[in-house]
Amino acid sequence: MMHLAETLNFSGRKVVAAWASVPFPAVQGSSLADALCAHQQDVPWQLLSSCRDRKSSCCFAQSVVLRGFGKERKQPLSPLHTCEGTEQVLQHYLHTAFPGACSTSHVLEQPCPTRPPYPQLFSPLLSREGFLLDKSPHSSSAAVESIPVLAALQSSPVLHTLLYGLYKDLQKVNPRRCLSFFSAGVEEDDFHEALQELRTLSECYKTGWEAGESEDEGDSA
């Protein structure tokens, strides 16, 4: 994970954000192109990292892995449907949703198993294979045995909010009142130096979009 994060970062960046879709929303019997065409405005995965999601389709680099889709083909209905194979479909979608970003993607046919002791916390509208049913089940549905899953790591501007917020919170800490700081061998000068490094790191994720926002430039260390 550490080496992957290093690969995705450049220009002084060190942190990545995690995204996932568990299960990935796709109707039973549909292709990956069908599923992605239903999400042209918002990507079908959610931010897991503790920073505010601004629904910005912008990132610097990302690595995306999707599990649980085979090689089925449908009649061409959109540019996504003309791609050769599921991995090309996902790559085309990423280039469209995140223009200019360095995106790598992998598609694995094997889904994620959810048999016991995995908790059965899924909606009854899911099939045994974890796909959305196109109609309500007639009776109590069988336990979900596997699910398609998408996971992504992104070097993204949303991390500016997280890192800058952490900097602001730590700025309020008075290390002189925390005896554990000094008993652990932390010097006050080292603390303030690390604090400034955190702010500098947050600036590495700032884009022109965030530059227009008002931030307290009169921070006192």
Automatic annotation (TrEMBL):
Taxonomy, superkingdom: Eukaryota
A GO term from the CC aspect: mitochondrion
Gene Ontology terms describing biological process: mitochondrion organization
Matching PANTHER family: MITOCHONDRIAL DISTRIBUTION REGULATOR MISATO (PTHR13391), PROTEIN MISATO HOMOLOG 1 (PTHR13391:SF0)
Name of the protein this chain belongs to: MSTO1 protein
Protein's organism: Urocolius indicus
